[in-house]
Specification:
Chain lengths: 256, 408
């Protein structure tokens, strides 16, 4: 299998033949039309990424340490760009996805499509792809055991991956990094009946907004389809340290 | 009048093609007179309004008040006290909703809006209703885009005084249909219910006379009538504005302040806390003067009707194209046309049109409930101004045919 960089280089080369925007758009439209659709059952509210201009659906499944994505959009040009992004990410490992950037989109002259002002859902889609990659990252601790290396609790099944994606939307109001990447989630257990157990901590034991954060976690997880009941246990043993933060979180906070 | 010459932005090239600007309902281009005044005030009268004894401050105040006078005169409002300067239509409606409901709405009361409202005439009322335990009631819109005005009388009678205000758009930003606001006001007043008109589009296409209309509130934005962004107007009848509590507290809205008791400035300053965007407000004068000249030019008015009729005739030739907002009386349709094309998603069309130099609007257009009513999540809208031309309409139709073909 080709690496992400190789696939991106192929796409850049492919686009080099287009001298005018019309050909480029026609090609994107073709890609959009030929892209395999997401299964109707996966076009759920929770897989929906809402943009003001168009909507995007994204689902993810894991097989032998590789991630596979399916996506759709009601806008065909957006779908064409999704198809390029999925060409790059489909079948890759979580680590490779997390390490990749989307600079190739700029190189092929489609940067304006990834601008947040386009509100087409693409920027959020990339964030969600990275969210799934973070959820499935290997090397995470064994279930129920906070890892010695301070890794986050990783997903062991697709429901848990969806839960991680939801948890990455929850923020400590004082820190611009989500609680999952901060390393506040010690354990996630989701069984086939939708019973979910989450063990988490906070950055400080006497955190004044503890109740708020726990309530937000419960609410976010409750909204994941397939989840029936959520139990959140707040612990302060082992104590949280900055070592538990993900690389991206450290980068975000200027610690690297 | 050579109208194209007074709007310098129209000369632009976009991706090497002449700009065709068909997103006037979002924001209009600005005439040279506005651009000149904007720059001149920044240089010559950059002082704070209503506060300073020095020359710059005094000049700024004069220009600011001249902007207010221009708005008063354009709306034919009785007095300066009726004209509150805000930052735009949204701010105007938020002010009206917050302060009116604070004073006049109690638990169990209702506010009536229509199904065709912009989010700015929905959410402020929703927020106010939540605060006071009131509910929002919705007057439906029919297939053609006309509000069910015939049901209004019965609705208000049955409400037995619980409906405290009717807030309705003068012209919907999606449907481009002039609502029968005279009738709405007459019926509402029969039951002593005040009416707020969202005039964001109405101010551009109608000759608004608030005294003849007898509306209780009228809200509009400067930037849709050729002024800069950041200024808007709330017209209100004195009986309401005087009874309503202030909106924001701060500078200029007070008469005297002590820690025990603050008394408020008389109208309209009671509602104008803080330093306003006085440059934009001052620009209302040349902007509304331009609007008046354009509205009084019979050739330009004829041209607007011609362009509207051309598009209404040509667009449906595209297979699977459906226009939303086709009133029974065609004269009630402004040159603003929203539509969907089967098999060609609006944002795709708009992206292709953009590459051809054509600016249109797509999306839910801040009217999600209305789009939902028609089973759509997104439409494409072409909204014209007096400076657009029939030739541009022809180019637009040709480009649209081509874009649809690319997508199918």
């Amino acid at each position: 299998m080709k690496t992400i960089q190789e696939i991106q280089a192929d796409i850049v080369e492919e686009f080099a033949v287009f001298t005018d925007w019309m050909d480029k758009y026609e090609y994107l439209i073709e890609l959009g039309k030929s892209m395999p659709l997401i299964e109707e059952k996966d076009k759920t509210e929770s897989n929906l990424i809402r943009g003001c201009q168009s909507r995007v659906w994204l689902s993810c499944r894991e097989e032998d340490g590789h991630l596979y994505f399916a996506a759709d959009s009601d806008a065909i040009i957006t779908k064409g760009i999704i198809s390029l992004l999925l060409k790059v990410y489909d079948g890759q490992t979580p680590e490779a996805i997390l390490a990749a950037d989307e600079g190739f989109i700029e190189q092929i002259g489609l940067k304006e499509n990834l601008s947040p002002t386009r509100a087409n859902g693409l920027v959020s889609m990339i964030q969600t792809i990275k969210g799934y990659a973070a959820a499935w990252r290997v090397g995470a601790k064994a279930p129920g055991q906070p890892s010695a290396e301070g890794e986050q609790a990783a997903a062991k099944n697709e429901l848990e991956a969806d839960i991680v994606v939801a948890l990455r939307q929850v923020y400590d109001p004082e820190i611009p990094v989500n609680i999952y990447d901060l390393g506040l989630i010690y354990d996630i257990q989701a069984d086939a009946d939708g019973q979910v157990f989450i063990k988490m901590t906070l950055t400080a034991p006497n955190c004044p907004i503890a109740d708020d954060v726990v309530a937000q976690v419960r609410e976010a997880v409750q909204d994941v389809p397939g989840v029936k009941d959520v139990q959140v246990e707040l612990v302060f043993e082992p104590e949280w340290t900055t070592d538990r933060m993900s690389e991206e979180a450290k980068l975000e906070l200027g610690m690297l | 009048m050579d109208v194209r010459r007074i709007f310098p932005a129209l000369d632009r090239q976009i991706y090497g093609k002449p700009l065709i600007y068909f997103d006037n309902a979002a924001t209009a281009q600005r005439p040279q007179a506005v651009l000149d005044l904007q720059q001149r005030l920044c240089v010559e009268a950059c002082g704070n309004v209503h506060r300073a004894v020095h020359k710059l401050g005094a000049d700024a105040t004069d220009y600011y008040e001249a902007g207010r006078e221009a708005a008063r005169s354009y709306l034919h409002a009785p007095a300066r006290e009726n004209i509150v300067i805000t930052s735009g239509t949204t701010a105007s409606i938020n002010l009206a909703a917050t302060c009116f409901c604070q004073r006049f709405v109690r638990k169990g009361d209702r506010i009536l809006i229509s199904e065709a409202e912009h989010h700015s005439n929905i959410v402020p009322w929703q927020l106010a209703c939540e605060r006071h335990g009131a509910t929002l009631e919705v007057l439906p819109v029919d297939e053609l885009g006309e509000i069910a005005v015939e049901s209004l009388d019965q609705r208000l009678r049955k409400a037995e005084g619980r409906i405290k205000l009717v807030a309705i758009t003068h012209i919907s930003n999606v449907l481009g249909v002039v609502n029968p606001v005279e009738e709405v006001i007459a019926v509402a007043h029969k039951y002593d219910v005040p009416v707020l008109l969202d005039g964001a589009q109405g101010i551009v296409h109608e000759q608004v006379d608030v005294q003849a209309l007898d509306c209780d509130f009228y809200a509009f934005s400067g930037h849709k009538v050729y002024a800069p962004t950041g200024v808007g107007i709330l017209y209100g009848k004195k009986r309401w504005l005087e009874a309503m509590p202030p909106y924001m507290g701060g500078g200029e809205m007070i008469e005297s302040v002590s820690f025990e008791k603050t008394t408020y400035a008389p109208l309209p300053l009671k509602f104008e806390a803080g330093t306003p965007n006085f440059v934009a407000a001052a620009c209302l004068a040349p902007a509304l003067e331009t609007a008046r000249l354009l509205a009084e030019d019979p050739a330009l008015q004829e041209n607007q009707r011609t362009m509207r009729d051309y598009l209404l005739e040509e667009l449906p030739r595209i297979e699977g194209l459906r226009i939303y907002g086709l009133p029974r009386d065609p004269a009630r349709k402004i040159p603003l046309i929203s539509f969907a094309v089967e098999g060609a998603f609006p944002s795709d069309l708009a992206q292709i049109l953009d590459k051809m130099g054509i600016a249109v609007r797509t999306g839910h257009m801040c009217a999600e409930p209305l789009l939902h009513r028609y089973g759509q999540t997104s439409l494409l809208r072409a909204s014209l101004a007096p400076y657009n031309t029939l030739a541009e309409c022809e180019s637009f139709v040709t480009a649209l045919h081509r874009a649809v073909q690319m997508l199918r």
